[in-house]
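Table S7 (text form). Paired inputs.
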Amino acid sequence: MAERPVRQIRQRNLWPGLAVVVLIVLLLCYALGGFLLLPWWVHKNLPHYAQQQLGWQATVGEVHANPFTFSAELRNLQANDASGEPVLAFQRLYVNLSAFDLFNGTTGFQAVELEQPMLRLDVLASGQLNLMRDWQQAPARAGQSSDTADIQSDTEPGSLRIYLQQGNLSAGTLVLRDLNKNNSQNNSVEFRITPLTFSLQNLATWARPGDIGQYRLEAVLDQQALSWQGSFEVDPMYSRGSLSVDNLGPGVLSYLLAPYMPFQLRSGRVSLNTDYQWQAAQSMELLTQHGKLTFDDATLALAAEPSEVAFRSGALTVDQIRFDLAARRIEVGKIEFDGPELNLNRSANGDIDWLVAGVRPAGEGFASRSGQYDSSPEFRWSVAGMDIRDGQLSWRDQVPANIAELQLNGLNLSLGPFTDHFDEPVNYRADAILASGGSLDVNGQFTTRPFNLEMAVVGNELALPAFAPYVQQRMAIELPAGLLSVDGSLNLDQQRLPLTGTFNGSASVTGLDTRLPGNGQPLLAWQTLQLAPIEYNVNPARLEIGRVTLIELAANITRSDDGSHDITHLLTPTAAAANENQGFIFRIGELQLDNADVDYTDRTLKPELTTRFGQLYGNLSGLSNIPPQQGRVSLKGKVNQVGNLDMSGSIATLGTDQQSDLVLNLENLELPRLSPYSGRYLGYGIAGGKLDLKLEYQLQGTRINASNQIILNRLELGRPIPSEQTVGVPIKLGLALLRDGDNVIELNVPVNGDLADPEFHMGKVMMSAFVNVLTRAATSPFALIGTLADVAGLGGEQMQQVSFVPGGIELTEASNQKLAALAQVLNQKPELILSIRGAAAPEADAGAQSPGALADSRAMALRQLLVNTHGVNSKQIFVSAPETDASVDANGNIAVNFTLDAR
C-alpha cells in the first residue's frame, strides 16, 4: 500500500516537469523557427518568388526575425528587371506585429519601417506600367492571356481587419520614367524624387471611434518639394489636411500641362498651398479652401516659334482659392500679376499666333478623350478680381506691307469681380505708356454675352509714326511725326447683329508731318488739328463734328512730269474701292482755317513753277452729304506773299447734283512768276506786270460752268523761250492790240466741262482759252482794229487796205476814213508798227508814171498823211517793196495793203 502512494506522488511530480520540458522544446522549436528557419526561408524563396511572379532578379542581404517580439527585419534588397535595370531596392524593412491584435482577428502592426527604398516606375511605349508588364509576362503566368493574368483577390472589401499603429518611410527614392515617344515632350522623360519620407499613424480598415489616423508625406525633386499631411478615417472614407507644393519647376510642369496647353514652358516656379476635406460615402465630396497659388518667373514660348519668348511674368499670385466638388463651384480670390510681358504676332495671312496655337486639331478636344461630353451640371465659378501691375504688351503685325510694331509699357490693368454669369457687368481700368510716345487711360465696364462695352478713353500725345504701317494700307504716305490726343466715351453693343455703338468726345492731332514715299518730299503738315465735339455712330455709319480747327497748315501739291497730281495717287487701290462702297454720312458744323500755307508746284514746266498760297484764314460751315444741307465758305490769304486771295460762296450737299456757287478773286499777282507758263505757250518769258483774276464757278454734280475775268496790267514780255508748244503767231502784236489806253488787257474767258472727264483740266482749259484769244488777235489784227476804232459802215478786215484812184495818188473817200481810224489806233498803241506796200496796176494806171515809181509814190503819200496829217510817230511807219502788178477792185480802184506788227 505504501508503494502505490509513492508511485502516485512520483507520477504527479513527473507531469509538471514533463510539461516544462515540452514547453521548453516547443519554445526552442519556435525560437529556432523564428530566429533561424524563417530568415533562411525568406532569404531562399524571396528571390525565387520575385523571379516567378515578376521575372525579376532579386538579391537579399540579411534577414532577421524575432519570434518573441513578433518582428522581422530585411536588409539590402536589390531587384533588377529582365533588362537588368534596378527596379526595386531598400536598405532596411522592419515589421513589428501586434500579438494582442492577432487574438481578436485583426492583423495589427505596431510598426512598419522602410529605410532608403527605391522604386522605378516606367510608362512604356504602349502606355502600360512596367510593373504590370512584368506581372503579366512573368514565368508563373506563361501561356496565360492578358485577360487572365490580372491580379485576383477573393477577399471581400471590408472583411479584412488591418491596423497599423505606426508606419515610417525614410530617405526614399522614386524614379518615374515616361518612355512613350508620343508624350508631351516627344522624348523619354525621367524624374527622380528623393528624399521621400512618409509617416502613417493609426491606420485601421474599420471604424475606430476616437482613434483618428494621421499621415505625413514629404518628397523632394531637385529643388521642388511636396508636403502632404492631415488626418483620415477609413470607414467611412474621410480625410482632411493640407497640401503644399513648393517650387515646382518647368520640367515637371511642362510634362504635366503640355497635353492641355499648346505652349512651351521655358522657365517658372509654381507653389501651391491649400487645405482640403475629402469624403467618399454615397457620393464623392471634395472641398478645398484657403488655397494660394504663386507662379514666379514664368517664361512661355509658342510651339510654332519655340525660340521666341511669347510670355514672361515676374510673379503671379492667386489667393483664396476654394473648390467644392459637391456644389460644383470654384471660387478664386484676387489674381495678381507683377511685370507680365506678352508678345503677340500676326502673320501675313492674318493669323494671331496665340489664337492659332490654342486651336486643337479635330478629334483632340477634351470631350473626345472619353468619347462623350460630361453630362454633369456645369461648374459655377467666380473671381474676386484681377490686378496687372507694370506689364508690357508687344504687338508685331506682318499684314501691312511695312511691318507694324507697337509696344505698351507700364501697363496696369484692374478688373472687378467676374463670374460665369457673362451677362453681369465687369468693371475695369487700364493705363499704359506707348513705347514710341504717349499714354493711354481707359475705364468702364463690359459684358461678354451679350457683348457690351462702355469705355471712357483718354489718349495723350500718342506718337502716330508707330501706326504708319496701318495708315499706309490706305494711303501711300510716310508719317515721320505727329501726336494724337483723344478724350471721349465709347459704347459698343452686340445684343443683335450687326454691332452698334457710338463715340462721343474730342480729338486733336499736333505736329503732323506727312511726306511722299520714296523721295521724302513734304506733303501735308500742320501745327494743330482740333475736332470737337465728335459724335460717331457705328451702324449706320455717321460722323458729326461740331468744329474743326486747323492751325498752321502746310500743304504741298505737285503736278508731276506726266501731268498727274501727287495727291491723286495717295489712296491705295484697296482703300479707293472701299470708299466707293461706303454708305457713310457725315456733317461738319464749322471748319476754321488759321494761317495756312499751300504750295503748288508744276513740274511739267521747265523751269518748274511753285506758287504759294499763304496766310490763309477762312471758315467753312455746314459741310455735309445729307440733303438739303448747304454750306458757306469764306477764305482770304496771300499769293506769293504779294497777291491777294478772296474766295466766298456756297457749297451744295456733297454727292448730290445741287448747285454750288463760288467766287474767287485774285489780285496783284506778279506776272513774272508765270514765265514758265508763258514760255511754254507764248514763247516768251514775262519781264513785268500784274495779274488780277475774278473767277465765278457754278458746279452742279460734276458739271462746271465758269466765267473767268482776266486782267493783265502792264504786261511786259521778256526774253524768248524755246518751246515746242508755242502757238507760232506774233504774240507781241496780239498783246499790243489787246491792251487798252492804260496798258491793261482785260479778257473774259468762259469755261465749261465735266470734272469727271479725265481729259478735262481747269487750268489747261483756261490757258487754252487765253491763248486762243491772243492768237485770234495776232492773226487777224485788222479785225480787232475795227472794234477799237470808230469806223462807221466798215468791217474790221476792210481796215487792212486803202484804195487809190487810177493813175494818181488820190485816195478814195472811204479810204481817207479808214486811214484816219488806223492812225487813231497807231497813236493809241505806239508799240504797233505799220508796214505799207505801195501798189500799181499797169492797165488801170496806163499813161502815168512807171508802175514802180507810182507804187512808191502812193506808199510815201500814205506815210506823209499818217505822220504829217494824223500825227503818227514816223518810227511806227515802214514802207515795203512795191507791188507793180496789182489788181483793181470792183470799183476799178487800186488797193494798197497794210501789215501790222509790234515792237
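Next pair, protein 2 of 2.
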Amino acid sequence: MIVKKVPNSKSKHKTASIRDLADYIREPHNQNPDEKVLYANGRGFLCDDHAAQREEMVALAAESVRSKNPVNHYIMSWREGEQPSPEQVEEAVSIFMEELGWKDHQAIYGLHKDTDNIHLHIAINRVHPETLKIVEINRGFDIELAHRAIARIEHAQGWQREQNGRYQVLENGELGRAPYDPEKPRQPDQKKRDMENRTGEKSALRIAIEDGAAIIKQAQSWEQLHRELAAKGMRYEKTGSGATVFVGDVGVKASDVDRNASLAKMQKRLGEYQPAPQRQQVAQREPEPIKPDVPGWKDYITGRKAHYAAKNAAKLALDKQQEQERKQLAEQQKARRDELMRGNWKGKGEVLNAMRSVIAAEQAAEKAALKEKHQKQREQWRQQFRPYPDLEQWQRMQKSPELAEQWRHRASEPQRIEGASGEPPTPRDIRAYVPEIVGQQVHYSRKDDAGRGGGVSFVDKGKSIDIHDWRNRDSTLAALQLSAQKWGSFTVTGNDEYKAMCAKLAAEHGFKITNPELQESIQQERQRIQQERAQAMKSEQLKQFERYAEAVGAERYRVTSIKMQADGRKQTFILDKKDGITRGFTPQEIAQRTPEMQRLQRRGENLYYTPLSDRKHHILIDDMNREKLERLIRDGYQPAVVLESSPGNYQAIITVPKLGTVHDKDVGNRLSDALNREYGDPKLSGAIHPHRAPGYENRKPKHQREDGSYPEVRLLKAERRECVKALALSSQIDAEYQRQAALKAQQPTLAKAKPALELAAASGSAIDAYQRHYRDVLKRQRGGEVDLSRVDSMIAVRMRVTGHDQAAIEGAIRQCAPATRQKDEGRDWNDYAQRTARYAYSAAGDRQAAELGKYRQQWEKLEGREPVRQQEQAKAQKIERDNSPGMSL
C-alpha cells in the first residue's frame, strides 16, 4: 500500500473547497466518467445523508477562523489485484484516524476505481467536534504518521507491503522504521515522479541529479563548475539569496540537486560566487526518456511538445487579440461619451444624468457581450487543445495495447544477469529458495511461499537469469550466488536501481561483476565497508575520544592517570612523560595508546585529558551543576564539549583563540579564573587544566555504586566551535594588560625582592619554614627581575613535600607574602594565599610533589627539623630496647 496527502486548493475558499472534495469522494463520476465508487461512508456526523454530512463538515470547519482549510485529503492505494471489502475499508479508516490522532473527528471517505489499482479517498476534519479547536499532530508532519498507519493496515489485513515502505510491524507488535541509506541516490519529489510516469520523460530535477550533482561535488573552482555544467547543457546561477540549477530553460533549486549544492555551502568551498562568462556556450539537451528503448516514445514526446507549443502560441495570440479588442472597445466607448457629453449642459442636470445612465447601461451591455465572446473563444481554445494523453493512453490510441501494458508494468519487468557460457539450467541448492524445472528453465521461489501461490523470484534460462522479484534484496542476492556458481564472473543488465543494488552486493560478497560502469561504485562500496568494519572494531572509549577531539580541535592531548591510594593519597602518572618532559599525544597516538589506557582503567585508575595548543586556549569550567551549565549557555558562552563527570556534575571546555600577544598566558589564566568564579569551581586556577576522559569511569570512592560499579564520564555535547563571547572577554583582559604595561613603561621600576634581613621576625613553624625557603629560593635566582608569585608557588610545593598541610601553607603565605613586595600591589592577599596553597594540592601540585619528593630530607634540614627527627628516632630506639625481653641471670 502507498499513501499520499493531496494539497488543498489555494484558489478556493475553504467552504467551496470542502464541498467540492466531499462531492468528489461520494460522486467522482461527475468529474471523471471512468471513475467508479465501490464503497463510501462517513463518520463523526449527526446526520446520515451525504448533503447533510457535507454541510456539517463545512459548519465545523468554519469554527476554525484562523485556518484556511482544516480538512485534510489523503489517498491510500492498494496494489494491483488487491480489493478490500467494506469491512476492511472501515477497519483501515479506523486504524488510519487513530494513528493520526483524529479518532473522534469527522471523516468522509470513498473507495474508488478508475485504474487497475483501487484507492481510498478520505477527507478528515482536524477541528475537534467538542473543543472546536484544531488538533495538530506531530507538529504538522502528519504524512509520517500516515506511513505508520499504512504499515499497521498492511499488518492487520495481510496486504503485500511495498518494498520501499518506511515502516514495518515487528514480531513484538511495535513499528520499526526502515534504515536510512545515505548512499541511495536522490529522487525527484512525488509530483515530478508522477509527471515522469505520465510522459516517460526525465524531469529537469532528475537530469540535474544524475548529471549535475557529481560535477557540483567535484568542482574546484567556479570556472570549472560553469564550464563542466555548460558541457552538459546546465547552468548554476545565483538567484536572490540562493542558487538555481538550470537544465535548458527549466530551473530547479540547487539544494534539491544535492544538499551541498546550496549557494552558502558552495561559497564556503569555492569562495565568493563568480558568474559564468557571458559568451560561454551551453549545450542543447534533447528530451530524455526515463526508460531507454521504449517503442514509439520519440514520436510521442515530439507530438506532445508540438501540441503544447501550438497550444501556448494559440493562447498568446488569443490573449493579444482579446486585449486589443478590450482596448478598442474602451476607446470607442470613451469617444462616444465625449461626443454625447460635448456642449453646454448648464441647467440641464436631470437630462445629463439620464443620458449618463443610458450610456452606462449601453456600454455595460457591450462589455458583457465582449466578455461572453471572449469566454466562448477561450472555451473553443480549450476544446481545440485538449490535454495531451499520457504515454500509456497514447500507446493504446496507436493500437498498441501490448506496449501500453508493458509501459504500465515496466517497474515489474525482470532484471537480468548474463553469463559467458550457455550452461544448461540445472536445479541448485540456493539458500531459502526452491527450484522447479519448467520446460527448459528452472524457476526459483521462496520456500516460505511454497504452496501459498507465491510468485517466482528468479528464473535460470541457461545463458541468463531473469530476476522477477529484484526489489527484494534476498532474491537478488540468491540470483547473484547462483550466477557465481554457474559462471564465476557475469554481467548485470537492468535499471539503475537494480545495478546499484548489485554493486553493493558484489562489494559485500565478492561477486565478480564485469560491467565497466559499475567498477568504481563497487570499489567505493568496498572501501566504505572496510571503514565501517574498522569503526565497529573501535572501542567505545576511542569513539568518544574521536568525537571529543574533533570538537575541541587541540593539537595534542596529555593523558594523566591518577590512582587513589587507600590512605587517600594520589599517585599520578603522565603517559607520555619522558626525562621529565611531556608534550602530549596526537589524536593518532591516542588511538594507539587506548589499550594501555583501558588497562589502567581496569586497574582502578582515573584517566584525564589535557588539551594542548599553541594558538588556542582550552578553558575548563569545572564542577558545574545543571543550573550553572544552563546559565553558562544562556549567557552566550558556547562550549565545544560538555561532560557529565559524575551524576549531576558537569564539566565544559570552551575553545578560545589566543591573541598572539606577550600576555597570552596571563590572559588564559585570568579567563579561566573569571569563568570558574562565575559558573564553576572558584578554586580552580590555570588555563591548562586536566579534565576527566569521556568513556572512562569516575572511580572516586564516593561515586561507587551499591553493586561496586562506578559511573561513566558521559560526553553530552561535542561540536567544533570557538566561543565568540569568551574571545571578547579575553580581548578585554589583554587590553588591560597592555594598558598596565604602557603605564609601567612610562615609570620604569624594577620590582626587586627585598633581602631576607628585611623580613619581620615571626613565630610559628610554618612562617619560619616560609622564610627559610624564601631565602633559599632567592639565592638560586640568577639576577634580573624575580617573579615573586612563582616564588610563592615554589615555596608552597616545598612546604607540602615537608609535611605542612594546606591550611598552614595558606596562613604562612597570607602573613609573609605582602612583606616581600617592594610596593603595595593592591592584591586581595587572602584570596592570593588560598589560590597559591590550593595549587600545591591540585593535580599539578601532585605531580610536582611526586617529582620533588627526593629533596624532602634536604628541605626538612633547611627548615631546621632534622635534629628533632634524630632525637625522636633515638627516643623511639631507647623505648624499644627498654621494652624488649632481657636475658635471665
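Residues 538-734 form a domain with the Alpha-Beta Plaits fold (CATH 3.30.70.1790).
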